[in-house]
Specification:
Elements lengths: L1 H5 L15 E5 L3 E7 L7 E5 L5 E8 L20 E8 L10 E5 L2 E7 L5
Antiparallel strand pairs: 1-2, 2-7, 3-4, 4-5, 6-7
């Protein structure tokens, strides 16, 4: 117990990437993925077409801190930070080369067109 009191909360946090909250929608022409990523400047996306089409997202979010205050004590840390990774399996074939993204109010909207039958 004494050891726990000497260490900070950060020392006990998981070391693996966190997973952002995600919604998956489907329209007649595309899959739409909404990812909650406030505070993230950019993410890497990879859409994979194949027997199990998927969207892979990776990136990093820095810890939010007040910029003008140096001497801070932390009481609660609930906002995930550091590297994140998420794979969303999609229900059907996709056009992986036509993925579009849009950042809006802390959300990333990803439009993945469905692959049309030829």
């Amino acid at each position: 117990m004494q050891e726990m009191l000497k260490r900070s909360y950060v020392d006990f946090r998981q070391q693996r990437p966190w997973q952002p909250s995600t919604n998956l929608y489907e329209s007649p022409d595309a899959y739409l993925v909404c990812v909650e990523l406030s505070g993230v400047d950019a993410i890497e996306l990879e859409a994979q077409s194949g027997p199990r089409p998927a969207l892979r997202m990776v990136g990093i979010r820095q810890q939010p801190r007040p910029c003008d205050i140096q001497d801070l004590s932390t009481h609660v840390l609930e906002i995930d930070e550091g590297p994140f990774a998420r794979i969303i399996e999609l229900p059907g074939p996709i056009a992986a080369d036509q993925v579009e993204t849009q950042f809006t109010k802390g959300y990333v909207w990803i439009t993945i067109p469905k692959k049309t039958a030829r």
